[in-house]
Design goal:
The protein is built from 4 helices and 9 strands. The chain is mostly loops. It has a domain at 1-42. A 9-stranded parallel beta sheet has the order 1-2-3-4-5-6-7-8-9, with no helix packed on it. The longest helix has 12 residues, at 3-14. It is elongated.
Amino acid sequence: MNLYSDLNNYLLKFCSEEALKGLVLANKEFSTLSSLEFKERASRKLDIYRKRLKELPTHYPKGHLCEGEEIDYSKIEYLECSGNKLTSFPDCLRSCKFLNCHDNKLTSLPDCLGKCKELLCSSNQLTSLPDCLGKCEGLECYDNQLTSLPDCLVNCKKLLCSDNQLTSLPNCLENCERLDCYDNQLTSLPDCLGKCEELDCSVNQLTSLPDCLRNCENLQYYGNQITSLPD
């Protein structure tokens, strides 16, 4: 089997539909890549979903285009490691743009995720998040033990932070379009949610909602003590 057949099989197995569409559009570029360039691009992606791992592997797993080679985590851009038993990450994921570590046993995340645009870290044992998530556009951190969120989430468009112990939300969510913060201990919401189209703030300790939510299309707020809605 030649390199291009190997590559096609690999892409069909490991790439999302959206990613494959992007590759089709970029077909001319990929047709000119050398075998080394193909492997270099493949080396940036690691999928170890539900492998019952307690630690991240040191070498690429069977079926990967770089099978058996040592993994340089500082170059990994896409890391899917949900459904394992991981307790920590190396402090070298500085190139990571997508990280799915849902359903592990993590108590903290490293301070090197400054390039991460999508972070899925729900169903862990996190008590805080790092202050380096300024580029993050999608953050799912529900079902943890968080008492606060970082003040750097200025680019966050989707924030799912339900089922934590939050008493307040950061005043930097001006670009947030979807916010799920139900089942926390919130007594108020920030005044920066003017772009929010979908909000579920049920089961908190809210007595009022900010006026910036007057245009929110989908608003759920049961299980609070709210007596009036924004005009």
